[in-house]
Amino acid sequence: MPKKKKQTSDLSSYLLKRLEEYKLTPPIKEHKIVKLDLDEPHQKYFLRCGTEVDGTTRALRYIPKDALIGWAYKLGKQGKDMNLEKTNAAKIGTIAHFLIQCDLMGWEPDLSSCDGMLVRSAQTAFKAYREWFSKAGLRPLAVEAQLVSHCYRCGGTIDLVGVDEHEELTLVDFKTSGGLWQDYFFQVSAYATIWEENYRRLPIQRLLLVRLDKETGEHETKGLTEWKRHWEVYVALLRLAKRIKDISG
User: Fold this and answer.
1) Whether 166 contacts 159, CB under 8 Å
2) Domains of the chain
3) Distance from the first to the final alpha carbon of the chain
4) For residue 156, what are the β-bridge partners?
């Protein structure tokens, strides 16, 4: 028999107190129709003083992406436009993330403005998510959480933070790429640090990358319970990005 998911009232008084302290309310499913606009501007992040800061992915551009080179070569051999394929892959990822958010929030997704072919690929990835989530044993505490680190001057959007039966927190990042690449682990270590800066008394115990295959509908997971070294690499990338930005003016 599958384990019954905890309702808010089933959470311990300790966890409820921590949630109340930070004014965090676990998502309550609410039926409404939400339309996805793929032309909506990218999320921006700001410090309390109003200064705009970079998202976590900016620093990752300095990581060599050997898999991307191989992918571009393969597309060239097939006579396909790499830029178009890259754009479509990003859109599929956006649609898949939107479908996941709607599922977790109880919304009805409106994809009427999206290309049908891209939607079908995203729905295949969403199928993989449903299979994974049905067995994950996590109750959502935060969905698409947009947070900023004032210490490190960067921001990020966390796909999911969930609590398990032991009330330990897992930070989940969904990917629709062809693999789980090394730079993803640097990115989620940044997400965990940003989360814990904002919610110090709600520490993350585990990081989980979940790859949702948009062709097969299968999923692949990789987890981390210790990410100090990954965070150290990310901090070095932040410093590098800042130096390059300062030099470039």
Assistant:
1) no
2) 12-18+43-248 (3.40.1350.10)
3) 60
4) 147
